[in-house]
């Protein structure tokens, strides 16, 4: 399969509590049938989340679903295949926001 190739690097910048150690950065290579940077731009353009949250959603979703696609017969994914398709279609159907529209406010996460 022809694919775009990427190197993903994850750096642990901070911990929730002062004095806890951070982890060393990890880096790995992966492929995707889609251009991930274009997908991130598309999700950001919908203005549903701030830019970092939109990038996290797009990248996490695309990395996860590419593993599903390449392992489509694995029983682990059987129960989420159709719900994932439905979710992606719902995300794609969101309209693009104009430049004046502020990002939707995401609910705060409680610990």
Task: Outline the structure in words.
This protein has 111 residues and is of the alpha+beta class. It has a single domain (4-93), classed as Protein of unknown function DUF3861 (Ubiquitin-like (UB roll), Roll), CATH 3.10.20.850. The protein has 3 helices and 2 strands. Strands 1-2 form a two-stranded antiparallel ribbon. α1 (36-45) crosses α2. The longest helix is centred in the middle third of the chain and has 20 residues, at 51-70. The chain starts with a strand and ends in an 18-residue tail after the last helix. The model has no long low-confidence stretch (mean pLDDT 90).
Can I get a quick summary?
This protein is α+β, with helices and mostly antiparallel strands.
The number of E-state strands comes to 2
User: CATH homologous superfamily - what is it?
Assistant: Protein of unknown function DUF3861
What is the multimeric organization of the chains shown?
A: single chain
H/E element sequence = EEHHH
Beta-strand percent range: 5-15%
Bin the helical content: 25-40%
Q: Overall mean pLDDT score?
A: 90
Largest sheet: 2 strands, antiparallel
Q: Might you state the CATH topology name?
A: Ubiquitin-like (UB roll)
**Uncertain residue segments:** none
Question: What is the 3D shape?
Answer: globular
Strand order of the largest sheet: 1-2
Q: Give the CATH architecture.
A: Roll
Helical stretch tally: 3
Quickly give the structural class. Answer: alpha+beta
Tally of distinct domains: 1
Kindly report how far apart the N and C termini lie: 42 Å
CATH class: Alpha Beta
Which value, in Å, is the CA radius of gyration? 17 Å
